[in-house]
Amino acid sequence: MAVADNCEMTSRAPKATPQRRRAQAAAYRADQANYHDVRPGYPPEVFAALAPYLGESVVDIGAGTGKFTADLPAGAVAIEPSEAMRAEFERLHPQFEVRPGSAESTGLADASVHLATFAQTWHWVDVPRACAELDRVLTASGHVAVVWNQLDTEVAWVKRYTRISRSGDIFRRGDRPPLTAPFEWVLHRDFAWVQRLTPADLIALAQTRSFYLAADGTARERVLANLDWYLHLHLGFAPGQVVEVPYVTTLVVGRRMGR
């Protein structure tokens, strides 16, 4: 596991309209079971890095099917706007409570949360509204943690895979996600690791991407045909072969300014 610490982050971030964010986020709800099966989890080093910020109350916002929530301490609460995702969450993780809500409207009590986590979801939120809601629900010493996985496009074959599958980066390496007052980022760490997948898994992974889910039948067929050629003919992966797929997981932690 390679780990990098960096608190001098740039301010670049992806640009998307609220309408585009909503449309792409909605696309994920179409096949939540497939999403859970092939999307990567999170390396244990992320949770070790979060340990100093846990406190008594932890909330995972935009929890989806619970890929991240599952490794949080017992008693953590999940917030998820999609009814279908909540149903899948409850099936997979009955030991955790999941409630309807969103980053902009959590339904939580004032000053009730010590740590709010956003795993693979911060790029979908309305940042000013989400920060206002966090300011309301976090305790005076509370923190917000944003986590995201990205395929390591510094590896040549992975970069071409992401181009074919339209699996673009959420943020470029070293970027600082957008954040508004009264919060500031205070920690940034990158963790390099691998997920082991078969070529069929890599194709299924592409089918969980917002581009694919929102595409028409012709565009979907083109993506699948190109991936089949690339993985089996160009790269020579055999059916069922286990491939080490490199990822970089980024964790950033924020708190109120001046704390």
Describe the overall structure:
With 259 residues, this protein is of the alpha/beta class. The chain has nine helices and eight strands. The radius of gyration is 18 Å and the shape is globular. The two termini are 31 Å apart. The model is unreliable at 3-16 and 20-24 (pLDDT under 50).
**Which structural category fits the helices and strands?**
alpha/beta
- Topology, number of strands: 8
- Number of helix segments? 9
Strand order of the largest sheet: 1-7-8-6-5-2-3-4
- Beta-strand proportion: 15-25%
Low-confidence stretches: 3-16, 20-24
The largest sheet is:
8 strands, mixed
Outline type:
globular
Short characterization:
With 259 residues, the chain is of the alpha/beta class. The chain contains 9 helices and 8 strands. The protein is globular.
Fold topology:
Blueprint: E1 2-5, H1 18-27, H2 32-38, H3 44-50, E2 58-61, E3 77-79, H4 83-92, E4 97-99, E5 113-119, H5 127-137, E6 138-151, H6 156-165, E7 183-197, H7 199-206, H8 210-214, H9 217-234, E8 243-256
Parallel strand pairs: 2-3, 2-5, 3-4, 5-6
Antiparallel strand pairs: 1-7, 6-8, 7-8
List keywords for this structure.
259 residues, 8-stranded mixed β-sheet, 33% helix, 25% strand, globular
